[in-house]
Prior knowledge:
- Pfam families: GreA_GreB, GreA_GreB_N.
- By secondary structure, the chain is an alpha/beta fold.
- It has two domains: 4-74, Orthogonal Bundle (Helix Hairpins), CATH 1.10.287.180; 77-156, Transcription elongation factor, GreA/GreB, C-terminal domain (Chitinase A, domain 3).
- It is 38% helix and 24% strand.
- The chain has three helices and seven strands, in the order E-H-H-E-E-E-E-H-E-E.
- It has helices at 8-38, 46-68, 124-129; strands spanning 4-6, 72-74, 89-95, 101-107, 118-120, 137-140, 147-156.
- The strands form two sheets. The protein has a five-stranded mixed β-sheet.
- A hairpin with a 5-residue loop joins strand 3 and strand 4 (101-107).
- Helix 1 packs antiparallel against helix 2.
- The two termini are 29 Å apart.
Amino acid sequence: MQKFPMTAEGLARLEEELRHLKSEERPAVIRAIAEAREHGDLSENAEYHAARERQSFIEGRIAELEGIIPSAEVIDVSKLSGDQVRFGATVTVIDEESDEEKTYRIVGQYEADTKQGSISISSPLAKALIGKKLGDSVEVPAPGGSRAYEIAKVRFV
Length: 157
């Protein structure tokens, strides 16, 4: 079984999502299907078809989470330190072209959320940053051409 690196917070979020799906979403969709069945002809019942589609999504996500969670290898980021970028690091980079500063946390692939500032360890940026130190420059391939970043800060939270 292949193991995936993950932070403790990321694992807790996935476990909470699984609990929520099993204890709240699944029973709710079963009730919705039962209610829709009571309305008669299922072939033209939009509520029934929507509920069945929702049920399919929920069951698929439950199966996915039940496959991911046992494969998680939790890495305690609080025990890490230094100025070298590794899994779990929160890295501030400066775009060498625009001087724009951005901060990212490098996390496992199943917990990454760019809107929250976390990127997957398998993303091009994270791959370029891993192993580099404070002050290093990295070249990152991007669809619009390579981008160069300088590592301005590395911390472990």
